[in-house]
Amino acid sequence: MDTVVWLFVVGLVLAAWSYSRWRHNHWSTLGVPTPPYLPFLGHIHKQLSLFQTRWEYLDEVYYKYGGSTFCGMYEIFRPVLMIGDPDLLKNILVKDFDHFIDRRKFPATEGSLTNQMLANKSGDEWRALRAVVTPTFTSGKMRGMFPLISDKADDLVSFTLKEAAKKPYVDMKVNSGRFTMDTIASCAFGIECNSFRNEETEFTKWAETLFAPSLITTLKFTLIHISPRIFNALRLTLETSAKTFFQNVVEQTIAVRKNGQRRGDYLDLLLDARANHDQHTTKSTSIMSNTTRETSTTDNLSGIDSLCVIPSKQGQC
Question: Are 58 and 75 in contact (CB under 8 A)?
């Protein structure tokens, strides 16, 4: 009896291993280079690792395993193509973008801000939102935010010079992080973070919390990759207190901007783009409504042989 059980277990393991090999044979059959992977997991253990950031692993793939041009990877059993060649990226993101409109959706609770993100839209909703966002990325409008970035660069230089006068060395990685944080807060959120003056600002704390790796978040992302249906069935969510904080910051800033205050930042560009889009949509709806009424009037008169507009002298048409 023990022999039968062991044979069954060995057979089951071999069958599972063969299935894993078959599913992980996709890129090799196409001649696409692939980094080393683990059976069943593929490369997901590297991308969701708590000991190495995802970006560090992708940097390794880029330089060692052909990612600078393109290479294949596996998220569990799902094949994923990593592309690093600028010409291929340009074709995908610009020339042939209409073939790559949909993005992977991350489950979110109903009414969540995450559902309204461009990366979480697909089909016609994605096209409509992209039409609103795209005009904000013109070179002229991006150049308009240069004074905001320049002010933060001046703060970086002043703070670095002060540190250099007091210390034998200056940690530019930390200072660059503060500069990046202040620039994002100023340009994207429309607020002054001032992390050079105060290292423990609330904005900085929540930003660190948002990007800090955690076991719970890693397990949730792993479950999304394995089975989104189970993720939804368990009513899990990726919403965090940090996301709620940033959502509240944006909503409060928008409320202030509606009263007439402007800074020339990216939030102003988005609000202007949305207003222009809403105005254009209203005009289009009005034109369509007028056209419909005119068509309806013409249809009602189509059965009349002649129409008297100005009576003749005899009072007849």
Answer: no
Q: If we measure between CA atoms, which residue out of 66, 120, 114 comes closest to residue 238?
A: 114
CB-CB contact of 75 with 221 (8 Å): no
- pTM, to two decimals: 0.62
Q: Provide, rounded to the nearest whole percent, the portion of the chain with pLDDT above 90.
A: 20
pLDDT digits (tens, 9 = 90+) for 142-182: 888 899 999 999 999 999 999 999 999 999 998 998 999 99
Three-class SS state of 81: strand
Radius of gyration in angstroms for the set of CA atoms belonging to the chain, rounded to a whole number: 29
Structure tokens at 203: 């904005």
Looking at this protein, which amino acid is placed at residue 223?
A: L
Nearest CA among 205, 159, 207, 208 for reference residue 179: 159
Name the token pair of 311.
């009576």
Distance CA 221, CA 228 (A): 9
User: With b meaning 16 or more CB within 10 Å and e meaning fewer, what string describes 144-169?
Assistant: ebeebeeebeebbeebbeebeeeeee
CA distances from 256 to 108, 116, 184, 249, 260 (A): 28, 21, 19, 11, 7
Give the 3-state secondary structure percentages of the chain, helix then strand then coil, rounded to 5. 65, 5, 35
Strand, helix or coil at 148?
helix
Residues in the chain: 317
165 bridge partner residues = none
Q: Which pLDDT score is estimated for 128? A: 81
User: Which amino acid belongs to residue 1?
Assistant: M
DSSP 38: B
What's the token pair of residue 308?
Answer: 């008297």
